[in-house]
Design brief:
The complex is a heterodimer of chains A (about 425) and B (about 260). With about 425 residues, chain A is of the alpha+beta class. Chain A has helices spanning about 15-30, 35-40, 145, 175-180, 195-200, 225-230, 395-400; strands spanning about 80, 90-95, 115, 130-135, 140, 150-160, 185-190, 210-215, 220-225, 235-240, 240, 250-255, 265-275, 290, 295, 305-310, 320-330, 335-345, 350, 355, 365-375, 380-385, 415-420, 425-430. Chain A is about 15% helix and about 30% strand. In chain B, helix 1 packs across helix 4 (about 45-60) and helix 6 packs across helix 9. The chains are: A alpha+beta (about 425), B mainly alpha (about 260). Chains A and B meet through strand 1, strand 4, strand 5, helix 5 and strand 13 of A and helix 1, strand 1, helix 5, helix 8 and strand 4 of B. Chain B: Keywords: Heme, Iron, Metal-binding.
């Protein structure tokens, strides 16, 4: 069980108590009302009528925690990785704990990582961005230079093209963090790429850009000029503060709505050209093999997708029957989320969920669907619809078109089976 | 006037409008620049927009471009510009043969990729896999899958060996690439020399099997007017597969330690 070590300190919590009663009394006892009452969490010494320590003593003063961290009781809320997935930790991925988050903003320290040669540690004084190729004047910028341009703030999701890629052949990862956690949603501050290209003066025969990172993978992608002039952002801040090293400090590019491989981190060079480069990350990788042996290339856009984050395998239902909140996220690379539907019975019947909070272009949106759970087995699904009318397909619908070898762009509908005991598991259903 | 110039002029005019409004206002206005919707190059060509902005531009000549940054020197560009295209643009000088490349490959690459590109452990397989792309277990290698030989020389030059990137150049680079092409039967003669002159003529067999993203056509059915809401399938859901049965999910407590 994924949550078994959640409450590693600080007394007994509701979950660990429940776990114990489960072990001692068996699952059947939990079904009764008395078991539910006995499961109220907490250490009696800290509960009324007793007065807990923190009500009597001084805590840490200001600036003791000069850069604040989450409560020690949240030590379980961390990125995780799957060791068997890749040959090395330096060219690998860690996953955002989506089941522990709410709203639409991903905390910087929890944003999933994907590196190809580890985290490059750049000195901001040594940072340079070069723009050259089919331009009137090749240019070199320092970080300070970039910050003198008119700035903009935008909230975008960045989703790895391989998010949910382990699920093409069936249910494999029993955790929302691992099925859907290669995504984060952050407010970026930066300069529109268009402004920098204007500064260099793009020649009329220019059609493509090459983006290159400063890490030892020197990650490159070809970017159509049209997208560059539209909404790409040369970003130097995320959620207000400087980019984290693992997210490209000091500068990365945002390519809104498009697969995150193109969001080149530690961006050092932009070359303007008249044709794509067909580099490794757009030929060997990030091309989508179909059943007939042919492969799609330049599959940039991340299609509409959603997932119920709570309940999910790492976040089971512990309250038994009664009023229950379903919480989840939806996003689309083609624009705004228009609607999310939720099903409790594996797609037989749907109800429209409630979008809450900002619903922005190419950003995560948060949805909720409240219902009265009668304690029966559930097959939870969510279905996103974006403003272009695209409806998130089932996995079977995707497989019919693509087969199971695409690796990337799996945006199929996720099913969670909720048992009468409230346990949740990743399943495929007919 | 180039397209970029047109864009620049429009932006300059917007900036000029902002400057008239005063310093504080100027920031707010200019920060709105990026909020312009897609297709602004088309918008720049429309007369009304130019007319509207023209008086302001006349009153306060725009200082465009911003004049931020400096010119990149040719030697600086040469130091960082390492990309190679299928048409041969960017190829560094050099020449090599598979015979010369074998020793280099064995000492620098084989620990991960195997002596014949078959790989060790989970490291990438570089050779073989011919005819597997439409099978249940496709083996995607340089020979079976990659469309362009230029990608090999570009990638080896920029990112390999893993952990010692940008250490290969000149004849060593060409020799290792020649050996990779030899392992994949693209070159059949160990002594055939490839060089920056001949390289653009090297063709890989799978090039024609790539096509541009066609989802908006081939997956048009996903743009549904009104998806089913009630009684969309008959009977109760039947579980076909469960992740729990596969049991490969990392568990809590096995993740990285947080101090």
């Amino acid at each position: 069980m994924l949550n078994k070590n959640r409450d590693h300190d600080a007394g007994l919590s509701r979950r660990s108590l429940l776990g114990k009663s489960l072990a001692l009394g068996g699952a059947a006892a939990l079904g009764t009302g008395t078991a539910a009452v006995a499961a109220e969490p907490g250490n009696p010494q800290n509960l009324p009528p007793n007065v807990p320590e923190w009500s009597k003593t001084l805590g840490d003063g200001v600036a003791v925690r000069a850069y604040g961290k989450p409560s020690k009781h949240e030590a379980n809320v961390i990125r995780r990785d799957v060791e068997w997935l890749t040959a090395s930790r330096e060219s690998s991925v860690s996953f955002t704990p989506l089941h522990e988050l709410d709203g639409i903003i991903t905390p910087n320290g929890l944003c999933f990582e994907r590196h190809h040669s580890g985290i490059a540690e750049l000195d901001p004084n040594d940072y340079r961005l070069m723009i050259h190729g089919l331009v009137d004047k090749p240019l070199m910028f320092t970080l300070q230079d970039l910050e003198r341009f008119p700035r903009t703030n935008r909230i975008y999701f960045a989703e790895c093209a391989a998010n949910s890629g382990m699920e093409w052949r069936g249910a494999q990862m029993n955790a929302c963090q691992f099925t859907h956690g290669m995504i984060h949603n952050v407010m970026y501050t930066g300069v529109p790429l268009r402004v920098l290209l204007e500064e260099a003066g793009v020649k009329t025969n220019a059609k493509w850009l090459l983006l290159e990172g400063a890490d030892s993978a020197a990650m490159t992608r070809s970017l159509p000029l049209q997208k560059a002039l539209d909404d790409c952002l040369i970003a130097f801040r995320m959620n207000g503060e400087r980019l984290r090293p693992e997210n490209g400090y000091p500068v990365r590019i945002c390519v809104p709505g498009w697969e995150a491989n193109m969001w080149v981190k530690w961006l050092r060079r932009i070359e303007v050209g008249d044709q794509p480069w067909h580099h490794r990350e757009e030929t060997s990788k990030y091309t989508d093999l179909l059943e007939n042996g042919k492969a799609r290339r330049f599959t940039y856009v991340m299609d509409a997708k959603s997932v119920i984050t709570n309940p999910s395998p790492q976040a089971p239902l512990r309250h038994k029957k009664g009023f229950t909140v379903i919480s989840g996220i939806a996003w689309s690379g083609r624009g705004k989320i228009a609607r999310v539907d939720v099903s409790l019975d594996g797609g037989r019947n749907w109800r429209t969920a409630r979008l809450d909070g900002p619903v922005l272009d190419k950003s995560m949106a948060r949805f909720y669907a409240e219902f009265d759970w009668n304690g029966q087995e559930l097959f939870l699904q969510s279905r996103a619809i974006d403003e272009t009318g695209y409806v998130q397909p089932t996995k079977d619908e995707l497989r019919k078109v693509r087969g199971v070898n695409s690796v990337y762009h799996n945006n199929g509908i996720q099913t969670w089976r909720v048992s009468p005991e409230g346990e949740v598991e990743n399943v495929e259903i007919a | 006037m180039s397209r970029s110039r047109e864009i620049a002029v429009l932006s300059g005019m917007l900036l000029a409008v902002a400057v008239i409004g005063g310093a504080g206002f100027a920031m707010a206005q200019s920060s709105k620049l990026p909020a312009k919707p897609p297709g602004k190059d088309a918008a720049a060509k429309t007369a009304p927009a130019q007319t509207a902005a023209a008086p302001a531009a006349a009153a306060a000549p725009a200082k465009m471009p911003f004049g931020i940054g400096r010119e990149a020197k040719p030697e600086e560009i040469a130091g960082w510009d390492i990309d190679v295209r299928p048409d041969g643009q960017g190829l560094p000088p050099g020449k090599g043969t598979a015979r010369k490349g074998e020793d280099l490959f064995v000492t620098q690459c084989a620990a991960c990729h195997g002596e014949f590109g078959e790989s060790t452990g989970r490291w990438p397989v570089l050779a073989g896999g011919a005819g597997t792309l439409a099978s249940h277990d496709p083996v995607k290698t340089i020979g079976s899958y990659w469309p362009y030989a230029s990608t090999v020389i570009d990638y080896v030059r920029r990112a390999m060996p893993f952990g010692n990137a940008q250490s290969l150049e000149g004849d060593d680079l060409y020799s290792i690439v020649a050996y990779l092409l030899y392992l994949n039967d693209v070159i059949t003669d160990q002594d055939q020399e490839i060089s920056d002159k001949s390289f653009p003529t090297v063709k890989l067999s799978n090039e024609a099997n790539f096509f541009d993203d066609d989802r908006e056509v081939s997956e048009k059915a996903f743009w549904k007017k009104e998806p089913c809401m009630t009684n969309c399938a008959a009977g109760a859901p039947k579980v076909l597969g469960r992740a729990r049965a596969i049991d490969v999910t990392p568990e809590d407590g096995k993740g990285p330690r947080v101090e």
